[in-house]
Amino acid sequence: MADAHAAGPFSRWERSVARRYLFAKRKNGGVALISIISFCAVMLAVFALITVMSVMNGFRAELLGRILGFNGHLYAQSPLINGPDRDTIIRRIKAAPGVVQAAPMVEAQAMVIGPTQVTGAIVRGVTPSDLRQMSLIAGNIKQGSLAGFGEGEYGGDTVLIGDRMALSLGVRPGDAITLISPSGPATAFGSSTREKNYIVGGVFSVGMSQFDEAFVYMPLEQAQLFFGRDTSIDYVEIKVDDPDKAIDYKHAVEVASGPGALVTDWVEKNQSYFNALQVERKVMRLILGCIVAIATLNIISSLVMLVKNKGKDIAILRTMGAGQGAILRIFLMAGASIGVAGTLSGLALGALFCTYITPIQNFVEWATGTAVFSADVYMLSHIPAKIDWVEVAGIVTASALMSLLATLPPAWRASRLDPVEALRYE
Length: 426
Known about the structure:
Layout: H1 2-6, H2 12-22, H3 29-70, E1 74-77, H4 86-94, E2 99-113, E3 118-126, H5 128-133, H6 135-138, E4 141-144, E5 158-162, H7 163-169, E6 176-181, E7 186-187, E8 190-191, E9 194-204, H8 209-212, E10 215-219, H9 220-226, E11 235-240, H10 246-257, E12 262-265, H11 266-269, H12 271-309, H13 311-319, H14 324-355, H15 357-368, H16 375-378, H17 389-415, H18 419-423
Parallel strand pairs: 3-10, 5-9
Antiparallel strand pairs: 1-11, 1-12, 2-3, 2-6, 2-11, 4-9, 5-10, 6-9, 7-8
C-alpha cells in the first residue's frame, strides 16, 4: 500500500478500485440496478436533446432554404420603376454588388376554379427568362414542362401551378382552369370581376405545402392584362449571392432604384416567423437541458448507496494509508463513469437517429399505415434533421460536467468518512 499511497492521482490502483466498485454484484445488486437506471436516464436525455435540437435546426434550414429559394431576398419599389426608364433601372439593380437576379413582378390574389374544387391563389406574373432562373421552380417541375410558357399574344394563356393545388383542383398539365380576379373593369355599378380560362402547362413542387397549394405563375404581360395593371409592375424581386448579407446590399439597391425607392429585405418580411422559431429553439434547449440535469442527479442516488455499502472498505483503505484525496477520486471516477458512458451512448444514438431519420420515418409510416409527419400541418413532406456538431459538442460537454458535479457531494462524503466510526460496529 506504500507504493499505492505514493502513486500519483488517478493511478492504476485507484482506477481498478473504482472499476470494481462500479461493477459490484451479488449483495450490491441494488446499487448496480440504480447505476443502470442512471446510465439509461443520462443516455436518453442526451439522445432527446441532440435529436430535438437537430430536428429544429433542420426545420430552420429547410424552411429558410425553401422560403429564400421561392421568394426574393430584397424587394424594390420606386416611382421610377413604373416609368419609361424601368429597363435601365432594372439593369442598374442587376449591376449592384451581390445581386444575381432582379425580376419585375406582378402579384395579386385570385380565385381558381377546377373541375372538382374552387380555391384561392396568389398569382405571380414573371417573364419566362426570369422564371427559368428561379431554380426552385424551374428545377422542380413534376408534371408537364415550361414549354409554351410566355408564348402567344400578351404572353399566352399557359400557367404553372403547385402540385397540391393541382391535386385539390383535379387537374393535370393540358387541362383548363378558370381564374377570377376581383379587380375587373369599372362599371356604372362599381368594379366588376374578370374571368378567364388558362391552360396548365406544368406542375411544380417545392416541398412546402403553403407554396405548393397557393401559388400560380403566369407570364408577366398576361398578368398585367388580367389584373388591369396596364404596363406597370408591383415590385422588383431581387436575389443576392448570400441571403445572410441581404441587409448589407440593401443600400446599393436603394441607390440603383432611384430617388424615393423603398427596399425591404426578407428578414423584415418574415421577422415574426423566424423570431418565433428562435424563441421556440431556445425554450426547447432550456427544457431539455433541465431534463439532462435531472438525469445526472440520479447518479447521486447510486453513489450514495455505493458509499453506504462500501463504508467498511473505505475504512480499511484509509487505515492502510489511502488518503482522503484517493478516496475522493475513486468515487468520483465511479460516478462520473456512469454519466460519461451515458453521454457518449446518447451521442451515438442521437447521431445515428438523425442520420437515418428519413428511413426511420418511412418505416414507421409503412408499419403503422399512417402519416406521422403530415405536410398539411408541418409544411414539409419529411422530418428534417441537421446536426450542428458545435452544438452537439456543447451538449456533450455540459452533460459530462453535470455528471461530474453530481458525483462530488457523495464522493466528498466518502473521503471524509471516519475509519474508526465505520469499523466500530463491524
